[in-house]
């Protein structure tokens, strides 16, 4: 069976400056991959390019998602086809209601599959269930998207959206950053609740901490825009102990 | 003013002096307008307005309405008075049940000149209205009366510009402690290039409360010059919500005087322009007594090649200690050739005031847009959603649910958005 996501020799520049330099990675269905690396190694760029954020120039290589050219798809199309990006810095959108966004997002994906829109009442029940899992208060429902949320609330909201959307490929960009240990556990529980044989995760993280709670199948270390080393979860532990200089030095 | 405009105005004013009923108000207006003329683009407070339509305009009032107009449904239940080109149409109006609130057509009860002696240079279009208006609405609520229904004044522009101008006029007075909700709506009967010059005067007695919705929904070829002046006595509260979406060129001049202690003004204005539209508003708010309060919100969206402008001037007089004034003026550029001009101005002649203002003009936020796209929302919907959200600070101030629905429906039409309706 072909992998869910195949990144082949991908090079990406931002404003003429190369950030990714021939990155190759395969993510099979049901797998959890952690992408680690020092600041500036290209982790977030990878996440954004996969989600289709404008401003990134792909200079070579390809990305195939479920047999399709992912890079040729518009961001909204990727989302409807099951690609989800959990933002490192979730955006506040005052005036756009949280539940409205959730519902619009779910309906956009359903429309893609020629399914009818969700029933508003059932949907609200589903959202409430997921909110309990994420320890979120009811007042969230009536608020604007991320409006006035604390850092931790924003991250939990990202995971809530993921739980409701049930993507096939979830890319979580530093979802653990800025979380205290309790919030980290809640976020990890949310992610773990969604793990399934047909669902894959790419966890972009600077620290090994999250990986204690969401145990990855593979760990990759990104250095200067390419994968310098891959291994299993023990690689993350070793990185924590020896620091990124250890891999960076080797890759030089 | 160009020579052509000057001579047209002089000719029409001479005509008004001969053929229209001569009230003291009209005589005074004709005299002053003859001396002062109309504003031009060199006047500081008029540089964003589109004054070109004045050049070929006949200012004499348009004659009889043409054809039968299919009336819009009322915004809310209550009394409704309908006007065609500023003239009261009793046969299609429905007086309310609240007899204490007195409505009188101005044709029967011409206003006195006494109340209108303090015209500023920026109010010259109100003089134009006074020189030519032959009818309008006088509304009066007696002391301590809380009106139990809303009053809607629906103004239709029916005449094409070449046949003359339309002069809607409102004189509203709430005596001490009275309360009223007023909906003032301006629409076009046909797709004509009507010339509309409206003038509104509001007087709020001690502790009176007025909630005033102004919905400007004129047709795409219409031209509007609009002047509103208001004076608030002590403890009076005026909530003025203006939603300006229509007309090819619209200019609104607002002049509010907080003359009594602790008077309170909430002014929330939204202006939307697309194509070649010009939406220009100038608001002058004067704090003349201590401890009065102003909260001013403007949200403007300019798409296409439209220009949307709001100039908000707050003057705090020497005796107005304890003034609390807040201005939040924001414009959204929704097209590469669109123009936004937002300008807060403060003139303070006393200490012990609290005045804040913020003004921004910018495009839709790319981060917000991408966030919505990344959730599967298509780009058109995402843009409209963000425009809608941008207007939220104004919409939130619409207390009357029926007015809110009417405004939301209109905005959804203007923003061409069906999905927006889901938000309601």
Which descriptors would you attach to this protein?
heterodimer, A: 252 residues, alpha/beta, 8 helices, 36% helix, 28% strand, B: 424 residues, 10-stranded mixed sheet
Q: What can be said about the biggest beta sheet of chain A? A: 6 strands, mixed
Average pLDDT metric of chain B: 93
Order of helices and strands of chain A, N to C? EEEHEEHEEHHEHEHEEEHH
Strand order of the largest sheet of chain B: 2-1-5-8-10-12-14-16-18-20
Overall geometry of chain B:
globular
Shape of chain A: globular
Order of helices and strands of chain B: HHEEEHEEEEEEEEEEEEEEEEEHHHH
Strand proportion of chain B, as a percent range, falls in 35-45%
Helical element count of chain A? 8
* Domains of chain B (count): 2
Proportion of strand residues of chain A? 25-35%
CATH superfamily of chain A: P-loop containing nucleotide triphosphate hydrolases
Output the number of helix runs of chain B.
Answer: 7
Largest sheet of chain B: 10 strands, mixed
Count of individual beta strands of chain A: 12
Helix-strand makeup class of chain A: alpha/beta
Question: What does this 3D model show about the protein?
Answer:
- Chain A has a 6-stranded mixed sheet, sandwiched between helices. In chain A, strands 2-1-4-5 form a 4-stranded antiparallel sheet, covered by helices on one side.
- With 252 residues, chain A is α/β, with parallel strands linked by helices.
- Chain A has helices at 43-51, 75-80, 98-112, 120-133, 151-165, 181-194, 233-242, 245-251, and strands spanning 5-14, 17-27, 32-36, 57-65, 68-69, 83-86, 93-97, 144-145, 169-173, 200-204, 218-223, 226-231.
- Chain A has a single domain (5-251), classed as Rossmann fold, CATH 3.40.50.300.
- In chain A, α5 packs parallel to α6.
- In chain A, β1 (5-14) and β2 form a beta hairpin.
- With 424 residues, chain B is an alpha/beta fold.
- Chain B folds into 2 domains: 3-260, no CATH class; 365-424, no CATH class.
- Chain B is 18% helix and 38% strand.
- Chain B is built from 7 helices and 20 strands.
- Chain B has helices at 3-19, 24-36, 124-132, 366-373, 379-390, 392-395, 401-414; strands spanning 78-84, 87-88, 102-105, 137-141, 150-157, 165-166, 169-174, 179-188, 195-204, 209-217, 223-232, 237-244, 249-258, 264-273, 278-287, 293-302, 307-316, 324-333, 339-348, 354-363.
- In chain B, the strands form 2 sheets. In chain B, strands 2-1-5-8-10-12-14-16-18-20 form a 10-stranded mixed sheet, with helices on one face.
- In chain B, α1 (3-19) packs antiparallel against α2 (24-36) and α4 crosses α5.
- The longest helix of chain B has 17 residues, at 3-19.
- Chain B is globular.
- The chains are: A alpha/beta (252), B alpha/beta (424).
- At the A-B interface, α2, β7, α3 and β8 of A face α4 and α5 of B.
């Amino acid at each position: 069976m072909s992998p869910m996501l195949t990144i082949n020799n991908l090079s990406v520049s931002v404003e003429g400056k190369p950030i990714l330099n021939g990155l190759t990675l395969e993510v099979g269905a049901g797998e959890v991959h952690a992408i680690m690396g020092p600041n500036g190694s290209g982790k977030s760029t990878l996440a954004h390019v996969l989600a289709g954020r404008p401003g990134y120039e792909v200079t070579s290589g390809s990305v195939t998602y479920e047999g399709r050219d992912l890079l040729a798809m518009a961001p909204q199309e990727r989302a409807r086809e099951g690609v989800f990006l959990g933002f490192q810095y979730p955006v506040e959108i005052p005036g756009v209601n949280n539940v409205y966004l959730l519902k619009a997002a779910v309906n956009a994906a359903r429309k893609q599959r020629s399914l009818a829109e969700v029933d508003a009442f059932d949907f609200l029940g589903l959202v409430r269930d997921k909110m309990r899992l994420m320890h979120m208060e009811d007042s969230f429902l009536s608020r604007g998207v991320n409006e006035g949320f604390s850092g931790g609330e924003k991250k939990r909201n990202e995971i809530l959206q993921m739980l409701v959307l049930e993507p096939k490929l979830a890319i979580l960009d530093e979802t653990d950053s800025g979380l205290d240990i309790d919030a980290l556990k809640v976020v990890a529980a949310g992610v773990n609740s969604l793990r399934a044989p047909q669902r894959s995760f790419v966890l972009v993280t600077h620290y090994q901490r999250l990986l204690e709670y969401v145990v990855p199948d593979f760990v990759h270390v990104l250095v200067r825009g390419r994968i310098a080393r891959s291994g299993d979860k023990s690689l993350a532990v070793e990185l924590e102990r020896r620091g990124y200089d250890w891999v960076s030095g080797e890759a030089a | 003013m160009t020579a052509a405009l000057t001579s047209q105005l002089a000719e029409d004013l001479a005509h008004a002096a001969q053929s229209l009923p001569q009230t003291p108000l009209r005589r005074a207006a004709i005299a002053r307008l003859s001396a002062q003329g109309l504003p031009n683009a060199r006047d500081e407070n008029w540089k964003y307005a589109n004054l070109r339509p004045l050049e070929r305009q006949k200012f004499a009032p348009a004659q009889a309405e043409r054809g039968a107009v299919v009336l819009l449904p009322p915004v809310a239940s209550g009394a409704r008075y309908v006007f065609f080109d500023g003239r009261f149409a009793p046969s299609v109006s429905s007086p309310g049940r609240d007899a204490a609130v007195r409505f009188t057509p101005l044709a029967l009860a011409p206003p006195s000149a006494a109340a209108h002696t303090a015209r500023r240079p920026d109010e010259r279009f109100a003089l134009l209205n006074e020189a030519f208006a032959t009818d309008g609405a006088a509304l009066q609520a007696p002391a301590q009366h809380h009106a139990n229904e809303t009053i809607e004044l629906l103004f239709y522009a029916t005449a094409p510009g070449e046949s003359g101008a339309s002069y809607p006029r409102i004189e509203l007075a709430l005596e001490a402690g009275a309360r009223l909700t007023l909906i003032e709506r301006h629409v076009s009967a046909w797709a004509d290039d009507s010339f509309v010059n409206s003038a509104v005067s509001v007087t709020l007695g001690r502790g009176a409360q007025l909630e005033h919705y102004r919905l400007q929904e004129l047709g795409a070829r219409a031209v509007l010059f609009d002047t509103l002046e208001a004076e608030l006595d002590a403890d009076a509260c005026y909530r003025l919500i203006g939603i300006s979406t229509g007309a090819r060129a619209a200019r609104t001049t607002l002049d509010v005087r907080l003359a009594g202690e602790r008077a309170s003004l909430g002014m929330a204005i939204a202006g939307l322009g697309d194509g070649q539209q010009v939406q220009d508003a100038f608001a002058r708010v004067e704090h003349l007594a201590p401890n009065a309060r102003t909260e001013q919100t403007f949200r403007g969206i300019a798409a296409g090649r439209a220009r949307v402008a709001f100039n908000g001037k707050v003057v705090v007089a020497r005796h107005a200690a304890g003034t609390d004034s807040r201005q939040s003026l924001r414009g959204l550029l929704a097209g590469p050739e669109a123009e936004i001009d937002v300008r807060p101005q403060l003139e303070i002649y006393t200490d012990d005031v609290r005045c804040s203002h913020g003004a921004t003009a910018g495009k839709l936020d790319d981060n917000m847009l991408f966030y919505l796209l990344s959730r599967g929302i298509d780009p058109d919907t995402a843009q409209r959603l963000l425009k809608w959200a941008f207007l939220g600070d104004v919409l939130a101030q619409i207390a009357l649910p029926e007015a809110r629905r009417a405004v939301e429906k209109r905005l959804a039409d203007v923003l061409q958005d069906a999905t927006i309706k889901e938000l309601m």
